[in-house]
Structures are given as structure tokens and as C-alpha cells.
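User: Before I run my own analysis I want an independent prediction to cross-check against. Here's the chain; please return only the C-alpha cells and, at the end, one sentence I can use as a sanity check.
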Amino acid sequence: MRHLFRKIGNLAKDENFMRLIENIEVLVSKVLSLAMVVVIVASIFDLGVYLVNELFTTSYGEFNEVLFTIFGLFLNILIALEILENITAYLRKHVVHVELVIVTSLIAVARKIIILDLDKVTGGTIIGLGVAVLSLSIAYWIIRSSNIRH
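Assistant: C-alpha cells:
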């Protein structure tokens, strides 16, 4: 029994085990990349169908609501593209690029702000979004300025 535990303990230190883990990470990243491409294509199709249906059938007074929905759909696609970029950057260098993650987060918060219905949100939500934008912007500035120096 001790021999079995010793073998299991040595397996965790073994380079083959670490290579197996790395291969699994790469495989998962590739599957996620393919899934994200499917999401992007479906989102573009959804946007096209929505554009055709709404732009030509919307009456004059309702166009503002349609426009905000269109902006939201566009930004969803941009967010998906940024997530795909995060995944492919990881596949290239096996490192998560914090700058890309922060940019993706900024786009997501910007999307939320753009499509925000001010009649349905509280002041706390607006303050929270403002704090998120400020925090992400400061983090982006710090990372960006440290990357420029190196």
C-alpha cells in the first residue's frame, strides 16, 4: 500500500504528468476557441436577421429602442471577439494576458452602460458601473504604462 502512495506522490512530480496537464489545457483552449467561433458566427447571423427585421419595419418613434438593441448586439460580438483573442493569445504563449482581460471587461461594462435603461436602474447600479469603469481604467493604465517601460 505504501508503495502505491509513493508512486502516486512521485507521479505528481513527474514531468510526464505536467506535460499531460499542459496538453489538456491546450485541448480545452482549442475547444473553447472553436466554440467561441460558433458563438461569433451565430451572433453575426442574429444581428443580420435583427437588422433586416427591425430597420425596415420599425416606425419612426420607436427607432431609439431598436438602435440601442443594435448597439448591444454589436458590442456582444466585439466582446466575443475579445474573448477569442484572449484564448488564442493563451494558445500562442500559454500565458493569460491581463491587459486583454481588462480590455474585454471594459468593453463589457461599456456595453452595459450603453444599453442601460435609466428609468429602470437605481443610483447604486450607476455608481457601481462608474466604480467598475474607473477601477478597470486605472488597472489598464498601470499595466499599459508598465509594459511600455519594459
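Sanity check: The chain has a mean pLDDT of 86.
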